[in-house]
Amino acid sequence: MASVKQARHPATDEITLIDVMGALNDPIRVGLIRVLADEREHGWGELRAPVAKSTLSHHLRVLRDAGVTRTRQEGTRCFVKLRSADLNARFPGLLTAILDAAHHDDVGSHVGLADDSPTA
Fold first, then answer.
1. Phi-psi group of 30: left, alpha or beta (phi > 0 → left; psi -120 to 50 → alpha; rest → beta)
2. What SS3 class is residue 77?
3. 105 vs 7, 61, 64, 84, 102, CA distance in Å?
4. Architecture of domain 14-105
5. Would you list the domain boundaries of the chain?
6. Measured distance CA(21)–CA(35) in Å, rounded
7. Suppose 15 and one of 21, 37, 49, 67 were both cysteines; which one would form an S-S bond, judging by CB atoms 3.0 to 4.6 Å apart?
8. pTM for this structure?
9. In what order do the strands lie in the sheet with 42-43?
10. Per-residue pLDDT tens for 6-56?
């Protein structure tokens, strides 16, 4: 019987500022954290970005490896959630500042959820 490979998530005290900032140097990844800031866990299939599925998977892996998100596999489905509490414990106020700046500068607004309605 084959075992499911579990993704490695850095412990809170292993999350570094350089890794977090490096992971957030792409507008798609900033858009993903804007979507995930609702504090809900989302299936990968719910996420919409103007990139191929393999590229979206890469972006999600970068965020996970940096400690920005947590990924959970359930059967063949994967779920992702923003690690807000861990990031706020490690870098108080950083996540809020990033989300505020992203909203102000309209970074990542082209990323959303499958059930998002287009705005007129």
1. alpha
2. strand
3. 32, 25, 24, 21, 5
4. Orthogonal Bundle (1.10)
5. 14-105
6. 18
7. 67
8. 0.89
9. 42-43, 77-82, 69-74
10. 678 999 999 999 999 999 999 999 999 999 999 999 999 999 999 999 999
